[in-house]
Structure formats: structure tokens, C-alpha cells
Amino acid sequence: MTMRDEDFGATLALSEADNGLWSPSMVVPASVCEPPDWQSLYEQAEARAEQERARADAAEARAEELLVAERTARSQAGSLKSILDKSRDKLKAAVEEIKEVRRTAKDALFYRSEAARLEKLLSEAGVDSRKRSPLTSLRMEVVRLRRDLRAAKAAKDTAAVRPPKTAPTRKADKDTIRALRRDVDSLTRENARLGKALERAREGKDELASLRKANARQGKKMEALRARNVELQARIARLQSTRSALSQALFGSKSEKQKKKGTGRKRGQQHGAPGHGRTPRPGLGEKKERRNPPKAARTCSCCGKPYVANGERSTSLVEIEVKAHIRRILRTRWRRGCNCASSPLEVTAPPPVRLFDNTPYGISVWTRFLFEHCACLRPLNRIADWMGDQGLAISPGTLADSIKRFVPLFDPLYAAILAHQNKAALRHADETGWRVQEYRRHGRSSRAWLWISVSADAVYYLIDPSRSAKVAKSLFGDTACTVYVVCDRYSAYRKLARELGGKVILCWCWAHQRRDFVRSVVGHARLSAWSDGWVERIAEIYRLNEERLEHYDPARALQRQMPAFDAAQAALKTAVERLFADAEAELAGLSGRSRKAKPLRRLLKHREGLCVFLDKPFVPMDNNVAERGLRCAVIRRRLSFGSNSEDGAKFTAIMHSVVGTLSMHGIDVLRWLEAWLTACAKNGGKPPDDLSPWLPWTMSEARKRKFTAPG
């Protein structure tokens, strides 16, 4: 029987939210179906629109005020910066002036002492230097002494009594006087000549004395320059010896690598070697484009007849097109065509699943956000800018607020990774600094610590405000068997081993021991040869261990290895025992404050932990695995300055653990994230109950190939 709409009456209503099921509650009173008052509704809408326009005008005015305030603040900041630069220049000039005054004061003290010495000499000679210059006083004193001498001689001559002389006697006296005068004149001339010669000799003597003084001064300058040269050479040696430690602080352990001899082989593809060809990409989709030449080119220019099709040529190009778009899903509504009351009146397709309610973003947006932020280590602002370039305008605040929503989705995986690591027999451990800005609100420092635990097939991160053994116990306290922990010599690991008894065996890192010898050269260039000798001996132990591992079969016991392994094992043990014996002998002949004693004492103190690898070949010699695992976290810390909140810190630790574990197995993180978030969305915004299809060690091989296949 055919039913019409009028047969149902005006009291029947159906909403999409009822999912096509009819119930008596759908019956509404007839008063609800009365026609509305459109005029009043229009006036109300106009009033609301006017209010919205007023709010928009007020917001625009407020934005303009803030813009003017920002410009004013920037201008004031620029002027303050210029004033600060000028003040710095003035301070620098004042410091230089103070240095010059101090140098002048030192010279003035020297000249004052010299002037006091000369005053003493002049006072001893009876010369008053306050009336005239010392040279003039000395000359006047010499003239006075000569005048007194001549006066004394004249008085002596006049005092003698002379007898009267006769004429012949007078003539003879005159002749004698003339002869004496001639002799006096000749003596005067000779005296003048000798005086000039003496003056020249004195001048030469003075010049020689001045030359000797100048030579002495030059000799003193040369001695000072030689001493300065020796000091500069020593300083250069100290700086060169310090360079290794500074490079290590700036570039890490990369700067501690020894120079290796080149093999002579050029980099890149070798001439004559077969190439691998182009990489196949079977997973890429294909879009075909058909291009035909112009119609005029397909016609003969002589007779005008058209060309005939003769096959086709194919050209392939790999392209990438990333563009945000709106996925509009049209769900058709199907109305019942019968009058069966037991069936729903209308049916339609279910709405698409959403990861988070009340958000317009699909799973692909959240997948790309997690991949860029956690796998590519991009900050939130750059991710927002990149999404804006793809056409999706999204604020960094929206991305930041969504972080706490992801914590419950990945928390079960986080716990499963730690539970899996507790079954491992070998783990690496390390820690580095982190920042959690929320700690400042509680009146404490923002300093926190990022811990890492690495096993053969998983990596686990933990951010905690403490660096105590309590945190280390939370990482290794639930281990199911005896675990060998490769770590540095931090005291928290020693306390962990004491509290857990024999469940944790510490294996100290040889790279840290090697670093002690490298750093001992800082400021002591004379220890370079000694330090290089010990570094070479440690490198020899590394080489012997690599030769031993080439013949090691993990499936066999240590006593049932091949003869080549036994020979390499004996050589390695001999080298290690000789190294410790030489260290003991050398330390016995050193004083307690010797620069060489500290690395030798550390070497002997940690002998037990350093020698674990001898009887356990599966234990590595160093902790480089954990330090490489912290590298991505350190890069992220430098880009984002840590985490803003405790939720953000936990999110960082969880996502680094999940992404790091997936990367260790070669799983495509982007595809795995999309599949995981889709499963969470289908499960009502909660993680799936069964985690075995998602963990690499419980995942089936077929499913693992799905996530690891290229494309």
C-alpha cells in the first residue's frame, strides 16, 4: 500500500541525530510547528549583527592602539640600545685612560727616585740645585776654584823679598824673561793643543760610555724580548694543549677522534664499478597525461593530408604535490518506501570518525603534526608556518593545546616499551639536562634531566626534575633478570647497583676513561706525548676487541668458541692486564698532586667495571649508543629550549620513545602514526586494547613489511 506524507500528519519529526530510528519521543506538539514571526527574527538578527560590528570596531581600535604601543616600545628599545652602545664605548675609553694613567704613575715613581738620587749627589758636592740648573752650578764652582788658586799664587809671589839688580843682571834677566815668555807661549800653545786633544778624548770617552750604556740597554731589551718569547712560546703550547678540551666541550666526542691514515680511495662512485641504476618505486601512484602536437603540425604542409597515429612515446617524472584541502563528505539520506513501523524511517551513512571531538581537523593533519614535531624535530611555530604555506592556517597555540590530548593515546605504548626493556640482558643508560619552564612558577629552577635507556630493540626516555638514584631505579628496578648496564661513572648508578644487589652489573665506559687522558693535557703541553701514549694503548684495546668480535658466535658458549676467537681473546686479555700493570707501576712513582696521577687513579679505581667486556663479549666497551640516542633530544632542546609544562615534558619523553623504537626497526614513522591514530579514532578516541599488532617485537612479519616497504 502506498503511503503519502500527508498520511503521517504534522506531528511526525525526524532528526539526523536519531540515526534513522523512530521513537515516540519524536512526536512534538502542534504548537511547535506554527510558522515563526520572521519580522521579529530579522530584527533580532539585525541587533546581533550591529553588536558584532561594534565589537569588531572596538577590537580594531584596540589592535590599532596596541600597534602604536608596539611601535613606540620598539623605538624606545632602539634608542636605549644606542645609549647602551655609547655607554659601552665611553666605559671602554675610560678603562684605557685608567690604564694609561697607571703606566704614567709607574714612570713618575721611577723618575722621582732618580731625581732624589741626583739631589743627594748635588748636595754632597755643595751645589744648591734650587737656584739654578746643576750644570751651571758646577761650572760656576769650577771658575771660583780657579780664581782662588790664582789669587793664592799671586799673594805668594809678592810676599817674597827680591834683592836689587845691576844693569848686566837686568839685561840677562830680560833675556831670561823673553826666553821664559817664549817658553810660556809655546807651553800655552802646547797646553791649548793638549787641552783640545784632551777635550776630544773626553768627548770620545763620553761617546764611548754612552754607546756602552746604549748597548747595555739594548742588551737588556734583547734579554726581555728573549724572556717574552719564551713566555709566549709556553703560552702557545698551553693554548694548543687546551684546544682539545675546548673542542670537546663545543663539538663533543667528535673532536676526540684520532687522525687516521687515508686509503687513497676517492670518494663517491669508483670509475669502472657497476652502478645500481635508478631506484624502483613501485608504491608510487601514477597519473597519466596525454599530450598531442598542435593540429597544424599534424597536417602535411605540401598536400594538406593529416598524419596517421603511429604509437606513442612515454616519459616519466616523479613529482610531489602537498596541499591542504577540505574533505567534504556528502552522506545521502534514504527514506523508507514502505509503511513498516518496525523499520527506521530514514537511513544514512555514518559520519567519519574524528580523533578529537569538536575539531575540524582530520587524522592526516594530526599525523603530519606529530611527524614534523617528533620525528623531524621542528618547533611548533615552524610547523604552523609550514602548514600555512600549504593552505591550512593554524596557530601554534592550537598545536600546543593539543599536546596533552596525545599523552593518553601513546601512554600504553610507552609502558609497553619499558616492560619490554625489563626483559633485556644488556642496556645502555645516560642522562642530560632539560628545561621545564613550569617549574619556575613553583619558586624553583627550571632545570630537569632527560634520562635514556637503550636496549637492542627499544629506546626509552624519561624526563624528571631529579638526577638521583631514585629515577635510575624507576628505569631498572623492575628488571626480570640480571642486566648489564653500560654507563658513565655517575654515582647514582653505583647506588642503584648497591640497592638492587646482583640484579644490575655496571659496565663502565672506556670512552670516558680515554677522555680523562685527553683532558689531562689542558694547560700542560709537556704531557702531550704521555697522554697520546695512553690514548694509543686504549685504541689498541679497541682494535683487539674488534678482531675478537669478528670470530665471536653468540649462539655458542664462551668456552666453545672457535680457535681464532680463543687466540684473539688471549691477546686482548694480555693487553688489558699489561695496561693496568703499567698504570699501577707508574702511579706508584708519582706524587699525590701530580697531573698524571688523576687519570691513572680513575683507571685503577674502575678496573672491575672496565673489564666486564672481557668475559662478556656481547657487552660493548663504551656507551656511545646512549649518547647517540640523546643527540636528537639535545637538538630539540636547542631549538625549543625544553618544555613549557610537565604535560609537554611527558609528551616529549613518550614520543621520543615511540619514534626512536620504530626507527630502530626501520618502520616508516609517518605511515605507522597515521594507522595508529586511525585505530584510536575508530576506538572512540582511545588507544586499541590489543597492542601486539603495533609493537615491532610482536608485530607479524607481513604487517611489518607493510610499514617498512618503500613508498
Walkthrough of the structure:
The structure is a single chain. This protein has 711 residues and is mostly helical. 56% of the residues lie in helices and 6% in strands. It has 20 helices and seven strands. A five-stranded mixed beta sheet has the order 5-4-3-6-7, sandwiched between helices. The protein has a two-stranded antiparallel ribbon with strand order 1-2. Helix 8 crosses helix 18 and helix 9 packs across helix 10. The chain is elongated, with a radius of gyration of 50 Å. The protein starts with a helix and ends with a helix. The N terminus is likely disordered.
User: Which structural category do the helix and sheet elements fall into?
Assistant: mainly alpha
Low-pLDDT stretches are 1-33
- Binned, the helix content reads 55-70%
Strand content: 5-15%
Report on the biggest sheet: 5 strands, mixed
Put simply, the count of helices is 20
> Biggest sheet: strands side by side, in what order?
5-4-3-6-7
The succession of helices and strands, N to C, reads HHHHEEHHHHEEEHEHEHHHHHHHHHH
The shape is elongated
Please tally the β strands and state the result: 7
C-alpha-based Rg, rounded:
50 Å
Q: What does the average pLDDT come to?
A: 81
Termini Cα gap: 57 Å
Topology:
Layout: H1 5-8, H2 38-124, H3 134-159, H4 167-251, E1 333-335, E2 346-348, H5 363-375, H6 380-389, H7 396-401, H8 403-421, E3 426-435, E4 447-454, E5 459-464, H9 469-476, E6 483-487, H10 491-499, E7 504-508, H11 510-519, H12 528-550, H13 563-588, H14 597-605, H15 607-610, H16 612-615, H17 624-640, H18 646-664, H19 669-682, H20 701-708
Parallel strand pairs: 3-6, 6-7
Antiparallel strand pairs: 1-2, 3-4, 4-5
Helix pairs in contact: 5-19, 8-18, 9-10, 11-12, 12-13, 13-14
